[in-house]
Write a structure and sequence with these properties.
Strand content of chain A: 5-15%
CATH topology of the largest domain in chain B: Rossmann fold
Shape of chain A: elongated
Helix content of chain A: 25-40%
Order of helices and strands of chain B: HHHHEHHEHEHEHHEEEHEEHEHEHHHHH
Number of helices of chain B: 18
Largest interface: A-B, 43 and 55 residues
Distance between the termini of chain A: 37 Å
CATH superfamily of the largest domain in chain B: NADH-ubiquinone oxidoreductase 51kDa subunit
Number of helices of chain A: 7
CATH class of the largest domain in chain A: Mainly Alpha
CATH superfamily of the largest domain in chain A: NADH-quinone oxidoreductase subunit E
CATH topology of the largest domain in chain A: Arc Repressor Mutant, subunit A
Strand order of the largest sheet of chain B: 6-5-11-8-9
Number of strands of chain A: 4
Number of domains of chain A: 2
Radius of gyration of chain B: 22 Å
Strand content of chain B: 5-15%
Distance between the termini of chain B: 44 Å
Largest sheet of chain A: 4 strands, mixed
Oligomer: heterodimer
Radius of gyration of chain A: 18 Å
Number of strands of chain B: 11
Largest sheet of chain B: 5 strands, mixed
Helix content of chain B: 40-55%
Structural class of chain A: alpha+beta
Chain lengths: ~170, ~425
């Protein structure tokens, strides 16, 4: 591709274009489904995150150029949504629900167990081995299955402090 | 993915009939269970006839506002020559609510069928189903189902051989409660920040991409084929005496109950039976303290109100709250109302899109005040300040997020004032640490 690729300079160093090969095909398959290019912004950002694990300034500039937007505009959208990572995270990203229904059912203890077992120490931090990042998330929409956690794309219901070591073992 | 409980004899299973039945997820399995008969029927009807049938059924929106569905569809312009759009709101994020997730996980074709019927009725060729980003399982199930429906010719350029074009496109959200607000959802779909829009114009006049748009909740759309199959009179009769609230509804019950889950009951069902019988009641030795019935955005009900309420739009208003999305957060006598109100305020502060001052400042400020109360640093004037802020947060903003934050705060103080006072008088030990 040509245009804006590589124009951004962020923590990632020289930006290597994301939208080549299969990722490019995926993006182009989206275009006919929407009347504007701009509407492909959220899906395009998902493709970036799937490919790179996070969305760097360089990637934002690349997306902007492909969709006819400005890098600043794209950054404004990226930072509105909590699921897009604007910095690198651990190999496995863990989101644990702590909103009222889960809090009533003991989510605080699940958080403590996750922080201890992963070695993250505190919410938002990445473990020293780079394997895990744990964050608190607002209502995951599975309140009848408290406490749900999302490990990458795996939605795990009805967790408890006792279940945490077993769950994490699957990601080591 | 498993389903936690078999149907209770007091449930009236229509939407949830095949929850837990994995074979119902496939196109073929859905057809074998009578699926797509409603769509076939709809494609042979005029849009006007479908809308009249829906109006007669009394179906009201299941996302929270309870607006009559047939009436909403009738607002779409006719013969305007513009593209029309249908949006399906599958951004289920209201704390306490987890019903749309089950519809999508177990009966994806019920939703596709409902969307296709709605497209025909409002003259839309394209339906976007906006699924919250965290719903990875529903996304996977829906993706497979949409592909199957295209492959079978049920939707696409010539839906069921009718000559009508119906496209269904799935769209993944990226983590924002506010995108469940209809105009924020449309902005998000257009590739923008999820800021709600000022109304008017209403979506039927200028919605998605500036074109006439109808937006409906997952559960509302899933109910539509049943109404066409079995008739408006059948649906309307599914209520316990109140003709303004008809049909069955999925009630999500969570928190301090023995059997949390979704229960499908006819409108007007006694709340007492829902909590104590269907949801298994309280844990041993515990008593009911409070219920937030509408998802978290409605006033808290105390035990007396909850035990006397009937579960429909009017019945819950009569007892001091609102039905909303029917996500019941149940609290027993071990719950700390002050903490739970604080936790909800923190939720709204996190989720405010920050466009309106009253909301941006109000949600953060009320959270801060509640936090200091829980730290044992509350001031005598704090409750009056919370009530004054809540007043300024109600009815003054583009959308109702800040009203939603105020509702549990005001009702919490009104109905459980002694719990707040205990922290303020330092009679109760602080539960939050920090300076």
């Amino acid at each position: 591709m040509s245009g804006g690729a590589g124009t951004g300079h962020g923590a990632e160093g020289e930006h290597q274009p994301v939208f080549v090969g299969g990722a490019r095909d995926k993006l182009e398959a989206l275009f006919p489904r929407f009347p504007t290019r701009q509407a492909c912004l959220l899906p395009a950002l998902w493709i970036v995150q799937e490919e790179r694990g996070w969305i760097s300034p360089g990637a934002m500039a690349e997306v902007a150029s492909l969709l006819g937007l400005t890098p600043a505009y794209v950054r404004g959208v990226v930072t509105f949504y909590t699921m897009y990572h604007t910095h690198p995270v651990g190999r496995h990203f863990i989101q644990v629900c702590t909103t009222s229904p889960c809090h009533l059912c003991g989510s605080d203890d699940v958080v403590k167990a996750l922080l201890k077992e992963t070695g993250c120490g505190e919410l938002g931090a990445t473990s020293p081995d780079g394997r895990f990042t744990v964050i608190e998330v607002e209502c995951l929409g599975a309140c009848g299955f408290a406490t749900p956690i999302l490990v990458d794309n795996d939605f795990i219901e009805s967790t408890s402090p006792e279940r945490v070591p077993g769950i994490l073992a699957g990601y080591r | 993915m498993g389903y936690p409980h078999p149907s209770h004899p007091k449930e009236t299973v229509v939407l949830s009939k095949y929850f837990g039945d994995a074979a119902a997820r496939t196109h073929q399995g859905w057809v074998e269970r009578g699926g797509y008969e409603g769509l076939k029927k709809a494609l042979g009807m005029t849009p006007e006839a479908i809308i009249e049938e829906l109006k007669a059924s009394g179906l009201r929106g299941r996302g929270g506002a309870g607006f009559p569905t047939g009436l909403k569809w009738s607002f779409m312009p006719k013969g305007d020559g513009k593209p029309h759009y249908l949006c399906c709101n599958a951004d289920e994020s209201e704390p306490g609510t987890f019903k749309d997730r089950e519809i999508m996980r177990w009966t994806p074709h019920a939703l596709i069928e409902g969307c296709a019927v709605a497209c025909h009725a409002i003259g839309a060729e394209t339906c976007y189903i906006y699924i919250r980003g965290e719903f990875t399982d529903p996304w996977a199930v829906m993706s497979t189902a949409v592909a199957e429906a295209y492959a079978a010719g049920t939707i696409g350029a010539n839906a069921m051989g009718s000559g009508t074009r119906i496209d269904i496109v799935l769209f993944r959200g990226a983590g924002a409660y506010i995108c469940g607000e209809e105009t924020a959802l449309m902005n998000s779909l257009e590739g923008k920040r999820g800021n709600p829009r000022i109304k008017p114009p209403f979506p039927a006049a200028a919605g998605l991409f500036g074109m006439p748009t109808t937006i409906n909740n997952v559960e509302t759309l899933a109910a539509v084929p049943h109404i066409l199959n079995r008739g408006a009179a059948w649906y309307k009769a599914l209520c316990l005496g109140n003709p303004k609230s008809t049909g069955t509804k999925l009630f999500s019950v969570c928190g301090h109950v023995m059997k949390p889950g979704n229960f499908e009951i006819t409108m007007g069902f006694p709340m007492k039976d829902l909590i104590y019988d269907l949801a298994g009641g309280m844990r041993p030795g515990r008593t009911l303290k409070a219920v937030i019935p509408g998802g978290s955005s409605v006033p808290i009900m105390n035990r007396q109100e909850a035990e006397a309420a009937l579960c429909d739009y009017e019945g819950i208003v009569e007892k001091g709250s609102m039905l909303g999305s029917a996500g019941f957060i149940v609290m027993d006598d071990s719950a700390d109302i002050v903490y739970e109100v604080y936790r909800l305020a923190k939720f709204y502060a996190h989720e405010s899109c920050a466009q309106c001052t009253q909301c941006r400042e109000g949600t953060a400020w009320t959270t801060k005040i509640l936090e200091r109360i829980l730290k044992g640093q509350g001031k005598p004037e704090d409750l009056a300040l919370l009530l004054e802020l809540s007043e300024q947060m109600t009815g003054k903003t583009i959308c109702v997020l800040s009203d939603s934050c105020a509702a549990p705060i005001v009702s919490g103080i009104q109905k459980f004032r002694s719990e707040f006072d205990a922290y303020l008088r330092r009679a109760k030990a602080p539960v939050l640490a920090g300076a």
